[in-house]
Design goal:
The chain is an alpha+beta fold and 158 residues long. It has one domain: Yope Regulator, Chain: A. 39% of the residues lie in helices and 28% in strands. The chain contains three helices and six strands, in the order αββββαββα. Strands 1-2-3-4-6-5 form a six-stranded antiparallel beta sheet. A hairpin with a 6-residue loop joins strand 1 and strand 2. The longest helix is centred in the C-terminal third of the chain and has 27 residues, at 130-156. The radius of gyration is 17 Å and the shape is globular. It starts with 7 loop residues before the first helix and ends with a helix. The model has no long low-confidence stretch (mean pLDDT 94).
């Protein structure tokens, strides 16, 4: 059975919950409280796309990891730009990410706009809550941290 699309009122409530979750995360880090999540650097809203957040996190293997969260009628879509597709070793990178996809939970590597490698996923709107948001953002951060150096080495090493 297919669920009906979320109503505007339901999306408004969920948008508020997401804003609150991000504000609580920022406040927790500013207060110096215990927080096992990655360091939140910035959150902005896309003025041209309703219900879209741009979340910037501090990385270790990569300075900044940026994640788009886009709330739609049926899903929360999320994506992060990982790296440009290498011009000379694209097949090696493609093989690595295809094999890596087998073990990823809730996300997958793919080639997206700008012919670049992205990490993407979707979650049904009725499943979105604070724990799922933590899982999504934490997983994308962890996957990129784990794979970024290898992807650079595979794709751009001479």
């Amino acid at each position: 059975m297919t669920r009906r699309p979320a109503t505007d009122a339901e999306l408004d409530r969920l948008e508020g919950r997401m804003d609150d979750w991000l504000a609580d995360w920022a406040r927790s880090q500013a207060d110096g409280g215990p927080d096992e999540r990655p360091m939140l650097l910035d959150v902005t809203r896309d003025p041209e796309v309703p219900r879209r957040w741009y979340v910037r996190l501090a990385g270790e293997s990569r300075d900044v990891i940026a994640i788009w969260l886009t709330l739609r009628q049926r899903t929360l879509a999320y994506e992060s730009y990982v790296l440009p597709t290498p011009q000379h070793r694209a097949e090696v990178v493609a093989d690595f990410v295809l094999r890596r996809n087998y073990s990823l939970v809730g996300a997958q590597y793919g080639v997206g706009p700008e012919d670049a490698v992205y990490l993407t996923g979707e979650l049904p709107t009725h499943c979105v809550d604070e724990d799922e948001l933590d899982r999504i953002v934490g997983s994308l951060w962890a996957y990129i941290e784990r794979d970024f150096t290898t992807l650079i080495r595979l794709g751009f090493q001479q």
